[in-house]
Amino acid sequence: MSETHGSTEEHNKPGLYEFRLKGHLDARWTYCFEALSLTHESDGTTILSVQVVDQPALHGLLRKVRDLGLPLVSVIQVDPKQANSQDVNANTDPNHLKKRSQ
After folding, report:
1. 93: number of CA atoms within 13 Å, CB side?
2. Which residues pair with 45 in a beta bridge?
3. What are the residues facing 29 on neighbouring strands?
4. Which of these ranges, 5-9, 18-22, 32-36, 47-51, has the smallest mean pLDDT?
5. Which has fewest Cβ within 10 Å: 6, 35, 46, 92?
6. What gap in Å lies between CA 76 and CA 83, rounded to an integer?
């Protein structure tokens, strides 16, 4: 009943993740996270787009979100091809805020 989920090397590759949080966070929250893009969505959520170097770094970000008491809605890994086409991480300035229009 054991299932193989790929090598450890696969899990330690860098990746782009989107953390969706309930509410619109102000720019002051960006000091808590390094190298991210903060996006306010029209549905009242905020998306933090961040490049992580490996799974331990991802778990560290999850702990930080929990420790700060931020209401987490979802976390997804973004396909780099999709990110480039949607310009998800176009601005790496941590003080950058942009609104997605729908």
Report:
1. 6
2. 22
3. none
4. 5-9
5. 6
6. 12
